[in-house]
Amino acid sequence: SQTIHQWPATLVQPVGSPLSLECTVEGTSNPNLYWYRQAAGRGLQLLFYSVGIGQISSEVPQNLSASRPQDRQFILSSKKLLLSDSGFYLCAWSGTSGGGYEQYFGPGTRLTVT
Amino acid sequence: LAKTTQPISMDSYEGQEVNITCSHNNIATNDYITWYQQFPSQGPRFIIQGYKTKVTNEVASLFIPADRKSSTLSLPRVSLSDTAVYYCLVGVTYSGGYQKVTFGIGTKLQVIP
User: Fold this and answer.
1) Which chain B residue has the Cα nearest residue A96?
2) DSSP 3-state assignment of B8?
3) Could B41 and A108 be called an inter-chain contact, meaning their C-beta atoms sit closer than 8 Å?
4) Cβ of B105 and A51 within 8 Å?
5) Are B25 and B67 in contact (CB under 8 A)?
6) CB B97 to CB A102 under 8 A?
7) Integer Rg of chain B from CA
8) What is the pLDDT of residue B13?
9) For residue B93, what is the nearest residue in chain A, using CA coordinates?
10) How would you write A41-87 as a 3-class SS string?
């Protein structure tokens, strides 16, 4: 069966510090991968998606970036965090064939920028 | 992307059937309708997906009228554990399975004992 991991689970970082969040998927090959952010009491905002290694598409302009160095690894980064970067970060994957392409989400990382 | 409109909140007693309706007037021909459930501090969980008519699984039913401008998620005999936020999504699945969808604020369902 497929599983998706995210770490760390919680993170408190000062403004201006760097960020690296990691997501890995097990049990599937060549998944589509997604990064979302959810502010308190809000819906999910799609930040990045990837259809393959090294292929990243950005949905909103911001000081965040994403990379996919391996097939089942997706990394979200920032060089300098802003207060507005606080939120709940979710990684998700979806299949590429044979199904309805529903998305499966990881447990999330709660980021607080102070 | 088609915009969706759903009630912000709903209350229901345990054991009742709950129907949450989502409006998506600008749905495109290739768009699928998907519903997710989210508990606090967890990622959303896929519930059901459909294109037209009726879809049923072990968790819920999804009713989609012929014009596809709305859809209704039906949860039979809800329990306290069904208290969660429910999202209605409309999006296109591109070649290769990438699905570009928009999550709104969803419907917060409160089940009352």
Assistant:
1) B97
2) coil
3) yes
4) no
5) no
6) no
7) 14
8) 97
9) A101
10) CCCEEEEEEEEECCEEEECCCCCEEEEEEECCEEEEEECCCCHHHCE
pLDDT tens, residue by residue, A64-83: 999 999 999 999 999 999 99
Q: Cα distance from B45 to chain A (closest Cα, Å)?
A: 7
Cα-based distances in Å from B25 to A18, B5, B55, B91 = 42, 9, 20, 13
**A25 contacts A93 by C-beta, under 8 angstroms:** yes
Q: How far apart are the first and last CA of chain B?
A: 38
Mutation site, A42, A102, A111, interface B, largest B CB count within 10 A: A102
Quick: pLDDT tens for B20-30. 999 999 888 88
H or E segment and range at residue A95: none
If you count them, how many residues does chain A have?
114
Cα–Cα distance for residue pair B27/B31, rounded to 1 Å: 6
Interface A:B, Cβ pairs < 8 A: 66
Residue in B43, B49, B96 nearest the CB of A105: B43
Q: Using CA atoms, how far apart are residues A103 and A101, in angstroms rounded to an integer? A: 6
Inter-residue contact B50 to B60 (CB < 8 Å): no
Pairing assessment for the beta strands A10-13 and B84-93 based on DSSP bridges: unpaired
Whole-number mean pLDDT of chain A?
90
Q: Model confidence over A47-68: pLDDT tens digits?
A: 998 988 998 988 876 789 999 9
